[in-house]
């Protein structure tokens, strides 16, 4: 089932930054040096069209210099055109974020697509790229373990962890050239607090919130099919996640596979270690990487990448029954946890937050980091 991955949306600044790229096949590190001195007034575009109804969006911003956040660009005319001349319109649903018109169909395998965006009279575009089908069949499994560490003060600590592994099966008749990107994300639900009605009669009702997190920039795995002739990639360690309260309800791990072009592979081979999990395109621009987008002004540099991808998602569901840990709900107020709530004036829910008696995320779903609408697989 296709699904929308959290788009890596942040670039980094610092001249002469050195970062490590982790190769999935060789299991070793390659050092790449980039000249990423940031400057102002440069257009950054990142987006995609895919075979999914969800994963079709374009982010457009303009840099404001090394020390300032990029500003979203509103009012652009954005469309994706296929090789048959069919136009898919992308409409702005929040500043600088353009999503495909709901009535338009997603991309189709075998068809080719290009981006065209008009910003302040200038045209930004890409060449046609073919939407390649997904070829790997993935499976996820987990192990419960313990990780030991030593703090800065020399104390020994132990953490219960979940270790996620992937098996990937490729077709027996491998294409000569193919490129795959895998990303890992988690999704789980939390509940806001139920406050005593006799003291807080107008408190917000208890609500279930949904959280989707991208798990680490170093967890973007790339496969260059030109250097592999085997058709199975088994027992690959994907992520180690410390067990916490997020596991008290349903907890999904989603392995998102993208079938990409060589140009796309090479771009993310450079950028993946520059990506901060959960950042946004509007955060400070910390780096400059030219992708496949050009301007009709030949003297203008454009940064970012427009990708045409086939995607598929493999999910692993874990529940409380799978975790040998007792969880204390930080937003459940019963017994001796009730009296502190009564130290504020009646019905003053905001007082609970101001006095740090209750976390804001226990009252409002919007305060839960990376909260989102209910995923369709819940």
TrEMBL record:
It holds the Pfam family DUF4249. This is DUF4249 domain-containing protein. It comes from Roseivirga misakiensis. The lineage of its organism: Bacteria, Pseudomonadati, Bacteroidota, Cytophagia, Cytophagales.
């Amino acid at each position: 089932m296709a699904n929308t991955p959290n788009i890596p949306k942040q670039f980094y600044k610092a001249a002469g930054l050195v970062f490590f790229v982790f190769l999935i096949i060789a299991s070793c590190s390659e050092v790449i040096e980039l000249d990423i001195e940031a400057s102002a007034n440069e257009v950054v575009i990142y987006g995609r069209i895919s075979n999914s109804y969800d994963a079709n969006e374009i982010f457009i911003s303009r840099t404001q210099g090394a020390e300032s956040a990029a500003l979203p660009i509103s009012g652009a005319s954005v469309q994706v055109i296929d090789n048959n001349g069919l136009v898919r319109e992308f409409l702005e649903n929040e500043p600088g974020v353009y999503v495909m018109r709901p009535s338009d169909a997603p991309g189709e395998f075998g068809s080719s697509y290009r981006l065209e965006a008009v910003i302040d009279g200038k045209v930004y575009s890409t060449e046609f790229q073919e939407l390649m089908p997904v070829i790997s069949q993935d499976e996820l499994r987990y192990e419960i373990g313990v990780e030991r560490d030593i703090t800065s003060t020399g104390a020994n600590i132990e953490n219960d962890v979940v270790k996620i592994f992937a098996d990937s099966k490729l077709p027996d008749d491998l294409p000569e050239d193919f490129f795959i990107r895998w990303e890992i994300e988690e999704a789980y639900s939390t509940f806001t607090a139920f406050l005593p009605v006799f003291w807080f009669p107008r408190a917000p009702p208890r609500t279930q919130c949904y959280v989707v997190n991208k798990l680490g920039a170093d967890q973007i795995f790339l496969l260059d099919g030109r250097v592999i002739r085997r058709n199975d990639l088994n027992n690959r360690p994907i992520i180690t996640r410390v067990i916490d309260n997020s596991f008290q309800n349903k907890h999904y791990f989603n392995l998102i596979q993208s079938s990409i072009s060589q140009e796309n592979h090479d771009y993310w081979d450079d950028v993946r270690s520059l990506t901060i999990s959960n950042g946004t395109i509007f955060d400070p621009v910390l780096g400059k990487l030219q992708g496949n987008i050009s301007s009709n002004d030949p003297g203008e540099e454009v940064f970012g990448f427009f990708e045409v991808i086939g995607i598929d998602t493999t999910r692993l569901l874990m529940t409380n029954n799978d975790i040998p840990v007792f969880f204390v709900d930080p937003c459940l107020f019963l017994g001796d946890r009730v009296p502190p709530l009564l130290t504020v004036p009646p019905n003053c829910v905001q007082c609970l937050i101001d006095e740090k008696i209750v976390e804001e995320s226990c009252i409002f779903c919007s305060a839960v980091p990376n909260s989102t609408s209910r995923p369709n697989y819940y």
